[in-house]
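Q: My collaborator sent me two sequences in one message, no labels, and asked for predicted structures for both. Can we handle them in order? The first one she listed is below.
A: Yes, handling them in the order given. First sequence, followed by its structure tokens:
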Amino acid sequence: MSDRLYTGKRAKYGENPGVVVDVTDGDERRPLSPRLELKEHSTTLEWGYGTGGTAQLALAILADVTGSDAYAERHYHWFKLDVVSRFAWEEWGLRESQIWDWINEHHPLAAT
């Protein structure tokens, strides 16, 4: 199993405003899809507090890691409270293995 790295960073003053959230898998990097088609809390991703953008990021991460939209929709609120709302303000990084640790400890993915 790969251990993708999820990272978020705020733009510095004078740069384009907003945040950037990427997924790095080996040598490949891509922006994280916000998954607005599942649920639209916010059109922007956020972290570090309890806004709609934080909920959107939690949903997007869980959907990306598990590959299960249904799982992400059921559990993103708890992931937001336990993990995403606690990210450092300026930038953060989270490994896929850490996300699976949270899933297995708190809300195990049911075998299908």
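Q: And the one she listed second?
A: Here it is, processed independently of the first:
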Amino acid sequence: MALVVFFLAFERFPLSLSQRIEYLTLAVGNAKSHPVSAGGKHESAISFLTDLEEKLEVSQVQLEIFHTLSPRLQSQPSDPDLREKVELLERGLFNITEVRVLIVMREHLWLTVVT
């Protein structure tokens, strides 16, 4: 079940960022509650859970950046670059490198990410 919900979070369905984070949170919860069999899958289950938790952390940073940029867009609605970034953040989940390169470095949001 965790794997299915994980894939839903990352698919290109028309979901909001909050909905994607909700799916990712459900995937983490499902992975934590799933009993691991002794058939040699313990390490892969732990690895999968760790990967999910890391992706959830990155998605929460992405959400913080989204909430930082959204008010700017309301005050600067004619800025196409800013609009593109906000829409990009809302459209899907990214890894930390993509978040850093696509958004943080261009908007000088280092303090938002670090704190």
